Amino acid sequence: MNKSLILVVEDDTSVRNLITTTLKAHEYRYLTAPNGQSAILEASSHNPDIVLLDLGLPDMDGVEIIKKIRTWSNMPIIVISARSEDTDKIDALDAGADDYLTKPFSVEELLARLRVTQRRLSMMQKVSPVETVVFVNGKLRVDYVAGCAYLNEEELHLTPIEYKLLCLLTRNIGKVLTHTFLTQSIWGSSWDNDIASLRVFMATLRKKIEKEPNSPQYIQTHIGVGYRMLKVE
Q1: Which burial class, exposed, middle or buried, applies to 152 when counting CB atoms under 10 A from its CB (0-12, 13-18, 19+)?
Q2: In terms of Cα–Cα distance, which of 16, 182, 158, 169 is closest to 96?
Q3: Is 210 left (phi over 0), alpha (psi -120 to 50) or beta?
Q4: For 56-115, how does the pLDDT look when each residue is reduced to its tens digit (9 = 90+)?
Q5: Beta bridge pairs of residue 78
Q6: CA separation (Å) from 114 to 9, 19, 79, 136, 191?
């Protein structure tokens, strides 16, 4: 039985009912919040496993809620929003969201995102004592065991998906990783929404590790194919 606790933050009653009905049918426990203030209260009081967050709430913007939660918790936050522009996604991801699902969405995709987030949490909690490799490339360093990345000896504040992307690239340095490989590795699927999300996550990752994102030193784009980690002296 699935006992994960999901906080659903959504002011639209019909959408909220759709999500909670889906969660109940798949044996998730859930809490609901119709606005930002109650969302912060529920998150701080019950420490849910995952937050499903709408950005367009009546009392405050969802990005502000992400920022507030991030001051005291790393609980996974999946944004579910009608805002489909890359700038909206980047703002949410930069604030600390872990994933972004655009409305309208299918129930199957929502469940897939939840499963992937749960698997990622489980993997992060299981640290293998055998793996002691530290990746170094120029001024970039990734400590796989600690689950941390550094640039110029300063820790990078990466979301779980950004960190997983970085690990995939660093573990395959010099190789072009296709969009399909990356989306399958992260979300377990290669839907159009996944490709769009991959582009956004790569943009936010670049902003954190590249001195000049428009002239990348570490991550090279192969248009229409994928991305590659370059060797830096």
Answers
A1: exposed
A2: 158
A3: beta
A4: 999 999 999 999 998 888 889 999 998 878 888 888 988 888 889 988 889 999 999 898
A5: 52, 99
A6: 15, 12, 12, 32, 15
Sign of the alpha-carbon dihedral angle for 106, 194, 201, 91: negative
- pTM, to two decimals: 0.66
CB 194 within 8 A of CB 183: yes
Dump pLDDT digits (tens) for 9-46. Answer: 999 999 999 999 999 999 999 999 999 999 999 998 89
Q: Whole-angstrom Cα distance, residue 176 to residue 169?
A: 9
> CB-side exposure of 17: number of CA atoms within 13 Å?
3
Relative orientation angle of helices 36-46 and 62-70, to the nearest 10 degrees: 30
